């Protein structure tokens, strides 16, 4: 069995030139018959044919095969499901493979060694002072995401911090009597979902297909950037609040002046 490094370097060299089926099979570690089946099923692009019996393959074919192997080996997905994923996605093969390789690696050290042990909903309520109904409302909105363990739902450290923040909002004056219920957080959740989608597209457009050649630790890059960007977004958020108040205040002053006349 070849080492991972040897297979990777062979694949990179092969991807930089046109390959015949034998070379593609060796670089991808997949038998010829399997590759032909992938092509037939639309999982891998058709080769470039220069003559009736002369077909050439390139980087796109190699990466497509690697993605299928990745989805089969790590996700245990049948080919029929993989086919639907590839056809239904707006992402390229390189982008999909980059995401698949990153999945499960992000924030793994935090998940493996949590500073705070998961708790039940009753203990979460006791710890934070939030009502059971408020916690259930946050769960309904997917603001907190407990994990089912047997007959119990357990809330992890992030869930605990989220509920603690919600209670702080209450103490800051955002009372239910004023109409501030958990649903007010949906605007932040939805906008952040759009933001993360755009961040993913930006990242993938720049690194997909180049992770191995540039020797990037993409998971660490994303983890480091998350903390940095969260700080930057906090500053931008604060500035925008100040700017927005000023904008509406100025507009109000102009309206008053217009009504008073010269």
In short:
The protein is mainly alpha-helical. Helix content is 64%, strand content 5%.
Explained architecture:
With 262 residues, the protein is mainly alpha-helical. Among the domains are: 4-90, Multidrug-efflux Transporter Regulator, Chain: A, Domain 2, CATH 1.10.1660.10; 217-262. The chain contains 12 helices and 4 strands. The chain has helices at residues 4-15, 21-28, 32-40, 59-75, 79-88, 93-102, 108-112, 121-128, 132-140, 157-171, 186-207, 218-260; strands at residues 48-51, 54-56, 147-149, 152-154. The protein has a two-stranded antiparallel ribbon with strand order 1-2. Strands 3-4 form a two-stranded antiparallel ribbon. Helix 1 (4-15) packs antiparallel against helix 4 and helix 4 (59-75) packs parallel to helix 6 (93-102).
Topology:
Elements: H1 4-15, H2 21-28, H3 32-40, E1 48-51, E2 54-56, H4 59-75, H5 79-88, H6 93-102, H7 108-112, H8 121-128, H9 132-140, E3 147-149, E4 152-154, H10 157-171, H11 186-207, H12 218-260
Antiparallel strand pairs: 1-2, 3-4
Helix pairs in contact: 1-2, 1-4, 4-6
């Amino acid at each position: 069995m070849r080492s991972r490094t040897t297979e990777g370097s062979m694949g990179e060299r092969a991807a930089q030139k046109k390959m015949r089926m034998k070379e593609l099979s060796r670089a991808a570690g997949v038998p010829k018959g399997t590759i032909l089946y992938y092509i037939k099923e639309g999982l891998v692009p058709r080769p470039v044919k220069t003559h009736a019996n002369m077909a050439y393959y390139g980087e796109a074919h190699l990466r497509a095969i690697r993605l299928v192997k990745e989805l089969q080996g790590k996700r245990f997905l049948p080919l029929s499901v993989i086919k639907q994923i590839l056809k239904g996605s707006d992402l390229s093969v390189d982008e999909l493979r980059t995401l698949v390789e990153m999945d499960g690696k992000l924030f793994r050290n935090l998940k493996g060694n949590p500073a705070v042990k998961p708790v039940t909903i009753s203990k979460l309520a006791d710890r934070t002072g939030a009502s059971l109904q408020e916690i259930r409302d946050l769960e309904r909105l997917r603001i907190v995401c407990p994990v089912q363990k047997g007959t119990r739902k357990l809330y992890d450290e992030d869930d605990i911090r989220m509920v603690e923040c919600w209670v702080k909002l209450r103490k800051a004056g955002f009372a239910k009597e004023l109409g501030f219920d958990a649903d007010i957080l949906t605007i932040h959740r939805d906008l952040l979902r759009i933001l993360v989608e755009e961040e993913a597209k930006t990242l993938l457009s720049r690194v997909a297909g180049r992770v191995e050649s540039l020797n990037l630790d993409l998971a660490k890059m994303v983890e480091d950037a998350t903390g940095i960007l969260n700080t930057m977004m906090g500053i931008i958020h604060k500035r925008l609040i100040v700017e927005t108040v000023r904008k509406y205040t100025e507009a109000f002053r102009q309206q008053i002046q217009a009504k008073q006349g010269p």
